[in-house]
Amino acid sequence: MAVTLGAMWRAGRDRLAAAGIEGASRDARLLAEFAIGFDALQLSTREREEAPEQATILYNSLIEKRASGMPVARLTNEQWFYGLAFQLSPATLVPRPETEALVDLALAMLGAQEAPRFLDLGTGSGCIGVSIAANLPRVTGVATDLSVEALRVAADNARRHGVADRLKFLEGEWFRALDELHSFDLIVSNPPYIQSDVITGLAREVREHDPLLALDGGTDGLDAYRQLAAEAGRYLRPRGKLAVEIGFDQGEAVSALFEEAGFADVIIEKDLAGLDRIVSGKHL
Ligand SMILES: C[S@@+](CC[C@H](N)C(=O)[O-])C[C@H]1O[C@@H](n2cnc3c(N)ncnc32)[C@H](O)[C@@H]1O
Predict the structure, then answer these.
(1) Average per-residue pLDDT for the chain
(2) Rounded to whole angstroms, how far apart are CA atoms 10 and 258?
(3) 3-state secondary structure 134-156
(4) Residues 211, 91 contacting (CB under 8 angstroms)
(5) How many Cβ atoms sit within 10 Å of the Cβ of residue 135?
(6) Has residue 1 got a pLDDT over 80?
(7) What residue's CA is closest to ligand 1, atom 5?
(8) Do the Cβ atoms of 166 and 115 come closer than 8 Å?
(9) What is the DSSP letter of 172?
(10) Is 117 helix (H, G, I), strand (E, B) or coil?
(11) Ligand 1 atom 14, closest CA
Protein backbone atom coordinates (compact mmCIF):
# COMPACT_ATOMS: atom_id res chain seq x y z
CA MET A 1 0.00 0.00 0.00
CA ALA A 2 1.26 3.48 -0.91
CA VAL A 3 2.43 5.58 2.03
CA THR A 4 2.41 9.36 1.94
CA LEU A 5 5.45 11.42 2.94
CA GLY A 6 3.45 12.77 5.89
CA ALA A 7 2.58 9.27 7.13
CA MET A 8 6.20 8.20 6.62
CA TRP A 9 7.78 10.91 8.77
CA ARG A 10 5.10 10.68 11.45
CA ALA A 11 5.69 6.93 11.80
CA GLY A 12 9.37 7.75 12.36
CA ARG A 13 8.48 10.38 14.94
CA ASP A 14 6.34 7.87 16.85
CA ARG A 15 9.15 5.31 16.73
CA LEU A 16 11.62 7.84 18.17
CA ALA A 17 9.17 8.98 20.85
CA ALA A 18 8.60 5.34 21.87
CA ALA A 19 12.40 4.94 22.14
CA GLY A 20 12.48 7.92 24.53
CA ILE A 21 14.32 10.29 22.16
CA GLU A 22 13.93 13.91 23.26
CA GLY A 23 12.88 16.13 20.35
CA ALA A 24 11.49 13.11 18.44
CA SER A 25 9.37 15.28 16.13
CA ARG A 26 12.26 17.60 15.16
CA ASP A 27 14.67 14.72 14.61
CA ALA A 28 12.18 12.71 12.54
CA ARG A 29 11.54 15.70 10.29
CA LEU A 30 15.27 16.39 9.82
CA LEU A 31 15.92 12.76 8.90
CA ALA A 32 12.94 12.70 6.53
CA GLU A 33 14.20 15.85 4.78
CA PHE A 34 17.64 14.26 4.47
CA ALA A 35 16.30 10.91 3.17
CA ILE A 36 14.05 12.53 0.56
CA GLY A 37 16.39 15.40 -0.32
CA PHE A 38 13.81 18.03 0.65
CA ASP A 39 14.07 21.17 2.74
CA ALA A 40 11.66 21.85 5.63
CA LEU A 41 9.22 23.81 3.48
CA GLN A 42 9.04 21.10 0.83
CA LEU A 43 8.29 18.46 3.45
CA SER A 44 5.45 20.58 4.88
CA THR A 45 3.86 21.41 1.53
CA ARG A 46 4.23 18.00 -0.12
CA GLU A 47 3.12 15.73 2.72
CA ARG A 48 0.36 14.13 0.66
CA GLU A 49 2.69 12.88 -2.06
CA GLU A 50 3.59 9.23 -2.18
CA ALA A 51 6.87 8.38 -0.42
CA PRO A 52 9.46 6.95 -2.88
CA GLU A 53 10.45 3.41 -1.91
CA GLN A 54 14.21 4.06 -1.73
CA ALA A 55 13.71 7.15 0.47
CA THR A 56 11.42 5.16 2.78
CA ILE A 57 14.00 2.40 3.17
CA LEU A 58 16.76 4.92 3.89
CA TYR A 59 14.52 6.87 6.28
CA ASN A 60 13.53 3.78 8.26
CA SER A 61 17.15 2.73 8.67
CA LEU A 62 18.11 6.26 9.84
CA ILE A 63 15.24 6.24 12.33
CA GLU A 64 16.44 2.92 13.77
CA LYS A 65 19.98 4.30 14.17
CA ARG A 66 18.63 7.46 15.82
CA ALA A 67 16.44 5.30 18.11
CA SER A 68 19.60 3.47 19.20
CA GLY A 69 21.23 6.78 20.24
CA MET A 70 23.15 8.01 17.17
CA PRO A 71 22.90 11.84 16.93
CA VAL A 72 21.13 13.30 13.88
CA ALA A 73 24.28 15.22 12.88
CA ARG A 74 26.24 11.95 12.72
CA LEU A 75 23.57 10.44 10.45
CA THR A 76 23.33 13.39 8.08
CA ASN A 77 27.06 14.18 8.43
CA GLU A 78 26.22 17.85 8.68
CA GLN A 79 25.51 20.48 11.33
CA TRP A 80 24.38 24.09 11.06
CA PHE A 81 26.49 26.64 12.94
CA TYR A 82 26.28 30.42 12.77
CA GLY A 83 23.88 30.15 9.82
CA LEU A 84 26.20 27.91 7.76
CA ALA A 85 26.07 24.16 7.07
CA PHE A 86 29.24 22.32 8.13
CA GLN A 87 30.22 18.92 6.81
CA LEU A 88 31.39 16.55 9.56
CA SER A 89 33.38 13.34 9.86
CA PRO A 90 34.03 10.95 12.74
CA ALA A 91 37.20 13.01 13.40
CA THR A 92 35.30 16.25 14.05
CA LEU A 93 33.24 17.35 17.04
CA VAL A 94 29.62 18.19 16.22
CA PRO A 95 29.64 22.02 16.56
CA ARG A 96 27.56 23.15 19.54
CA PRO A 97 25.30 26.23 19.56
CA GLU A 98 26.98 27.64 22.69
CA THR A 99 30.27 27.91 20.74
CA GLU A 100 28.66 30.56 18.51
CA ALA A 101 29.39 33.05 21.33
CA LEU A 102 33.11 32.83 20.44
CA VAL A 103 32.28 33.91 16.89
CA ASP A 104 30.18 36.82 18.25
CA LEU A 105 33.17 37.91 20.34
CA ALA A 106 35.53 37.65 17.36
CA LEU A 107 33.26 39.65 15.05
CA ALA A 108 32.80 42.37 17.69
CA MET A 109 36.55 42.61 18.24
CA LEU A 110 37.83 42.33 14.67
CA GLY A 111 34.96 43.98 12.76
CA ALA A 112 36.27 47.53 12.99
CA GLN A 113 39.89 46.68 12.07
CA GLU A 114 41.43 47.28 8.66
CA ALA A 115 43.05 43.90 8.00
CA PRO A 116 42.62 41.73 11.09
CA ARG A 117 44.33 38.37 11.57
CA PHE A 118 43.16 35.57 13.82
CA LEU A 119 44.19 32.07 14.86
CA ASP A 120 41.67 29.28 15.56
CA LEU A 121 43.40 26.54 17.57
CA GLY A 122 41.78 23.06 17.40
CA THR A 123 39.49 24.01 14.53
CA GLY A 124 37.71 20.63 14.17
CA SER A 125 35.09 21.07 11.43
CA GLY A 126 36.35 24.64 10.99
CA CYS A 127 33.10 26.02 12.40
CA ILE A 128 34.67 28.91 14.35
CA GLY A 129 37.31 30.00 11.84
CA VAL A 130 35.12 29.61 8.75
CA SER A 131 32.24 31.51 10.41
CA ILE A 132 34.55 34.38 11.36
CA ALA A 133 35.98 34.59 7.82
CA ALA A 134 32.54 34.29 6.20
CA ASN A 135 31.29 37.27 8.19
CA LEU A 136 34.35 39.53 7.86
CA PRO A 137 35.57 39.91 4.26
CA ARG A 138 38.81 41.68 5.30
CA VAL A 139 39.91 39.07 7.84
CA THR A 140 42.60 36.45 7.24
CA GLY A 141 43.35 33.59 9.57
CA VAL A 142 45.11 30.37 10.43
CA ALA A 143 43.27 27.29 11.70
CA THR A 144 45.10 24.34 13.26
CA ASP A 145 44.34 20.87 14.53
CA LEU A 146 46.23 17.79 15.64
CA SER A 147 43.90 15.67 13.50
CA VAL A 148 44.74 15.58 9.78
CA GLU A 149 41.28 14.23 9.02
CA ALA A 150 39.60 17.11 10.90
CA LEU A 151 41.75 19.59 8.95
CA ARG A 152 40.69 18.01 5.65
CA VAL A 153 37.04 18.48 6.61
CA ALA A 154 37.68 22.05 7.82
CA ALA A 155 39.38 22.93 4.51
CA ASP A 156 36.40 21.46 2.59
CA ASN A 157 34.07 23.60 4.69
CA ALA A 158 36.17 26.69 3.96
CA ARG A 159 35.88 25.98 0.22
CA ARG A 160 32.15 25.34 0.54
CA HIS A 161 31.65 28.76 2.13
CA GLY A 162 34.01 30.65 -0.17
CA VAL A 163 36.70 31.59 2.37
CA ALA A 164 39.48 29.12 1.49
CA ASP A 165 41.65 31.88 0.03
CA ARG A 166 41.72 33.70 3.39
CA LEU A 167 42.27 30.75 5.73
CA LYS A 168 45.39 28.62 6.10
CA PHE A 169 45.06 25.15 7.65
CA LEU A 170 48.03 23.75 9.58
CA GLU A 171 48.49 20.44 11.33
CA GLY A 172 50.14 20.09 14.73
CA GLU A 173 49.99 20.38 18.48
CA TRP A 174 48.61 23.82 19.46
CA PHE A 175 51.17 26.57 18.60
CA ARG A 176 53.68 24.05 17.26
CA ALA A 177 51.51 23.80 14.15
CA LEU A 178 52.50 27.33 13.12
CA ASP A 179 54.94 27.32 10.22
CA GLU A 180 56.38 30.78 10.78
CA LEU A 181 56.32 33.56 13.31
CA HIS A 182 52.80 34.96 13.19
CA SER A 183 51.32 37.87 15.06
CA PHE A 184 47.56 37.77 15.54
CA ASP A 185 44.93 40.24 16.72
CA LEU A 186 42.90 37.41 18.20
CA ILE A 187 43.49 33.79 19.17
CA VAL A 188 40.32 31.75 19.69
CA SER A 189 39.97 28.16 20.78
CA ASN A 190 37.39 25.68 21.92
CA PRO A 191 39.89 23.10 23.22
CA PRO A 192 39.10 19.72 24.78
CA TYR A 193 38.10 20.46 28.38
CA ILE A 194 36.42 17.40 29.90
CA GLN A 195 38.24 15.72 32.80
CA SER A 196 39.54 12.34 31.60
CA ASP A 197 37.72 10.32 34.28
CA VAL A 198 34.37 12.03 33.58
CA ILE A 199 34.25 10.99 29.91
CA THR A 200 32.84 7.50 30.53
CA GLY A 201 29.91 9.11 32.40
CA LEU A 202 28.97 11.52 29.58
CA ALA A 203 25.75 11.11 27.60
CA ARG A 204 26.04 8.23 25.14
CA GLU A 205 25.58 10.54 22.16
CA VAL A 206 28.74 12.41 23.15
CA ARG A 207 30.83 9.57 24.61
CA GLU A 208 30.29 7.21 21.67
CA HIS A 209 30.12 9.64 18.76
CA ASP A 210 32.39 12.64 19.42
CA PRO A 211 36.15 11.97 19.00
CA LEU A 212 38.05 11.48 22.26
CA LEU A 213 40.73 13.91 21.02
CA ALA A 214 38.07 16.63 20.97
CA LEU A 215 36.87 15.92 24.51
CA ASP A 216 39.73 14.83 26.77
CA GLY A 217 41.22 17.78 28.66
CA GLY A 218 43.46 15.68 30.93
CA THR A 219 43.19 14.85 34.64
CA ASP A 220 41.63 18.17 35.68
CA GLY A 221 40.31 19.21 32.24
CA LEU A 222 42.74 22.15 32.10
CA ASP A 223 45.71 20.75 30.13
CA ALA A 224 45.00 22.75 26.96
CA TYR A 225 44.30 26.01 28.82
CA ARG A 226 47.66 25.78 30.62
CA GLN A 227 49.48 25.54 27.32
CA LEU A 228 47.38 28.12 25.50
CA ALA A 229 47.61 30.73 28.28
CA ALA A 230 51.35 30.22 28.75
CA GLU A 231 52.26 30.48 25.05
CA ALA A 232 49.64 32.73 23.41
CA GLY A 233 51.42 35.98 24.30
CA ARG A 234 54.24 35.19 21.89
CA TYR A 235 51.79 35.12 18.98
CA LEU A 236 49.63 38.14 19.85
CA ARG A 237 50.05 41.77 18.89
CA PRO A 238 50.03 44.25 21.79
CA ARG A 239 46.41 44.53 22.98
CA GLY A 240 45.58 41.35 21.05
CA LYS A 241 43.18 38.94 22.76
CA LEU A 242 43.04 35.29 23.71
CA ALA A 243 39.47 33.95 24.03
CA VAL A 244 38.58 30.35 24.89
CA GLU A 245 35.43 28.35 25.44
CA ILE A 246 35.29 26.72 28.89
CA GLY A 247 33.21 24.21 30.82
CA PHE A 248 30.57 25.76 33.10
CA ASP A 249 32.69 25.18 36.24
CA GLN A 250 36.11 26.21 34.86
CA GLY A 251 35.75 30.02 34.88
CA GLU A 252 37.85 30.69 37.96
CA ALA A 253 40.58 28.17 37.18
CA VAL A 254 41.00 29.35 33.58
CA SER A 255 40.92 33.05 34.60
CA ALA A 256 43.67 32.33 37.11
CA LEU A 257 45.79 30.71 34.36
CA PHE A 258 45.28 33.78 32.15
CA GLU A 259 46.26 36.14 34.97
CA GLU A 260 49.34 34.07 35.88
CA ALA A 261 50.41 34.29 32.23
CA GLY A 262 50.19 38.11 32.37
CA PHE A 263 46.89 38.74 30.55
CA ALA A 264 44.98 41.88 31.56
CA ASP A 265 41.23 42.58 31.59
CA VAL A 266 40.44 38.91 32.13
CA ILE A 267 36.68 38.43 31.76
CA ILE A 268 34.36 35.45 32.18
CA GLU A 269 31.29 35.61 29.91
CA LYS A 270 28.11 33.61 30.36
CA ASP A 271 26.11 31.76 27.69
CA LEU A 272 22.35 32.06 27.07
CA ALA A 273 21.71 29.48 29.80
CA GLY A 274 23.50 31.75 32.31
CA LEU A 275 26.52 29.42 32.60
CA ASP A 276 30.15 30.53 32.45
CA ARG A 277 31.21 29.84 28.83
CA ILE A 278 34.09 32.08 27.64
CA VAL A 279 37.24 33.43 29.25
CA SER A 280 39.10 36.20 27.45
CA GLY A 281 42.08 38.35 28.27
CA LYS A 282 44.19 41.08 26.70
CA HIS A 283 47.90 40.78 25.92
CA LEU A 284 49.80 43.85 27.08
C1 LIG B 1 36.36 20.61 21.48
S2 LIG B 1 36.98 20.31 19.87
C3 LIG B 1 36.53 21.83 19.07
C4 LIG B 1 36.38 21.72 17.59
C5 LIG B 1 35.80 22.98 16.94
N6 LIG B 1 36.67 24.12 17.12
C7 LIG B 1 34.42 23.29 17.52
O8 LIG B 1 34.30 24.25 18.28
O9 LIG B 1 33.47 22.53 17.23
C10 LIG B 1 38.73 20.45 20.12
C11 LIG B 1 39.58 20.29 18.88
O12 LIG B 1 40.95 20.39 19.28
C13 LIG B 1 41.71 19.41 18.60
N14 LIG B 1 42.87 19.07 19.46
C15 LIG B 1 42.91 18.26 20.53
N16 LIG B 1 44.14 18.24 21.07
C17 LIG B 1 44.89 19.06 20.31
C18 LIG B 1 46.26 19.46 20.36
N19 LIG B 1 47.09 18.99 21.31
N20 LIG B 1 46.72 20.33 19.43
C21 LIG B 1 45.88 20.81 18.46
N22 LIG B 1 44.57 20.47 18.37
C23 LIG B 1 44.09 19.60 19.28
C24 LIG B 1 40.75 18.25 18.39
O25 LIG B 1 41.16 17.42 17.32
C26 LIG B 1 39.44 18.97 18.15
O27 LIG B 1 39.23 19.20 16.78
Answers:
(1) 96
(2) 51
(3) HHCCCCEEEEEECCHHHHHHHHH
(4) yes
(5) 18
(6) no
(7) 124
(8) no
(9) S
(10) strand
(11) 122
Judge whether 169 and 151 are in contact, CB under 8 Å. Answer: yes
Q: Which domains does the chain have, with CATH numbers?
A: 5-74 (1.10.8), 78-282 (3.40.50.150)
Distance 241 CA to ligand 1 centre (A): 19
Q: What is the pLDDT of residues 245-283, one digit of tens each?
A: 999 999 999 999 999 999 999 999 999 899 999 999 999
Could you report the per-residue pLDDT of 39-54, keeping only the tens digit for each? Answer: 889 999 999 999 999 9
Query: What residue ranges line ligand 1, CB within 6 angstroms?
Result: 93, 95, 99, 122-125, 127-128, 144-147, 150, 173-174, 190-192, 213-214
The answer to whether the beta carbons of residues 123 and 144 sit under 8 Å apart is yes
Binding residues for S-adenosyl-L-methionine: 122-126, 145, 174, 190
What are the E-state strand segments in the chain? 78-81, 84-87, 117-121, 140-145, 167-171, 184-189, 236-245, 264-270, 276-282
